[in-house]
């Protein structure tokens, strides 16, 4: 498992206790961005201001994967996380199933059979990299060596290096989820990028409180053992972040309202 796990002393908690992050640590998790750099930038500005208004703490920001696809600014989003992230926090960028599919499409050695990336977001991503529309009009993916002429090597190398998880105290951060009954350090990468029902329907202990994206909900999906924060930014116009400190949790959202992006903080139980 490719992990960006950040561990401090992990507090023991009872069955009825709220999950906690370690003392002196503050964590913000951001749901699936999908090329909505126009939402990410104001959201990060609000997160920076929120962090600065609180007591001093070691700040971390976890992006839960799916930087690319469906929205209009995939290439710009990847460039931003490579070269222009703010310095108020340590950033942990996780891999989602859309990055996985993109990397497969760019790999000449990969069997493209069954890779539907062009149909579920790849078209928009390739357009953002300047791939001519004439190459994207068919049902099949253009050849990998052709696509590689448009996607910079530094972007491909960066995406290949993304981790699958981050861990702070009782919280595990992962793109799609994990398979119940399997130890966290033995999880399969396919599940961490793609799992849905077996994870979402599970109501018991998962070995950690899981913060994930991948499955869209109109509002954050808060359960006893997990919280999903993919609010479908590419189609809803709302990108959601979860803030964590001690056993406290809060939300910050960036939304398009009357044609302008507005951000809002709200508390959660």
TrEMBL record:
MF terms (GO), sorted A to Z: bis(5'-nucleosyl)-tetraphosphatase (symmetrical) activity; phosphatase activity
Task: Tell me which InterPro entries the record gives.
Answer: Ap4A_hydrolase (IPR050126), Calcineurin-like_PHP (IPR004843), Metallo-depent_PP-like (IPR029052), Ser/Thr-sp_prot-phosphatase (IPR006186)
Pfam families of this UniProt entry? Metallophos (PF00149)
Ranges for domain Calcineurin-like phosphoesterase: 26-197
Q: Where is this region: Disordered?
A: 1-22
SUPFAM superfamilies in the record: Metallo-dependent phosphatases
Q: Name one GO biological process term.
A: RNA decapping
Q: Which Gene3D superfamilies match?
A: 3.60.21.10
**Origin superkingdom:** Bacteria
GO CC terms of this entry = cytoplasm
Protein name per UniProt: Serine/threonine protein phosphatase
Organism expressing this protein natively = Sphingomonas montanisoli
């Amino acid at each position: 498992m490719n992990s960006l796990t950040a561990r401090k002393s992990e507090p023991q908690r009872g069955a009825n206790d709220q999950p906690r992050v370690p003392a002196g640590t503050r964590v913000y998790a951001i749901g699936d961005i999908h090329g909505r750099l126009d939402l990410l930038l104001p959201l990060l500005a609000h997160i920076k201001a929120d962090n600065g208004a609180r007591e001093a703490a070691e700040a971390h920001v976890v992006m839960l994967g799916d930087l690319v696809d469906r929205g209009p600014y995939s290439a710009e989003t990847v460039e931003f996380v490579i070269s222009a992230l703010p310095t108020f926090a340590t950033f942990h960028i996780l891999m989602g199933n859309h990055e996985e599919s993109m990397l497969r499409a760019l790999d000449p050695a990969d069997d493209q059979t069954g890779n539907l990336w062009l149909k579920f977001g790849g078209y928009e991503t390739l357009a953002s990299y300047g791939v001519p529309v004439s190459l994207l009009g068919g049902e099949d993916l253009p050849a990998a060596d052709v696509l590689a002429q448009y996607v910079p090597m530094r972007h491909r190398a960066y995406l290949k290096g993304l981790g699958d998880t981050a861990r702070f105290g009782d919280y595990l951060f992962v793109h799609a989820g994990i398979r119940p009954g399997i130890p966290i350090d033995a999880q399969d990468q396919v599940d961490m990028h793609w799992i849905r029902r077996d994870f979402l329907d599970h109501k018991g202990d998962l070995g950690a409180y899981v913060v994930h994206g991948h499955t869209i909900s109109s509002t954050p999906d808060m359960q006893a053992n997990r919280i999903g924060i993919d609010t479908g930014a590419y189609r809803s116009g709302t990108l959601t972040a979860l803030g964590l400190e001690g056993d406290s949790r809060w939300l910050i959202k960036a939304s398009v309202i009357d044609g302008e992006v507005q951000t809002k903080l709200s508390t959660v139980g």
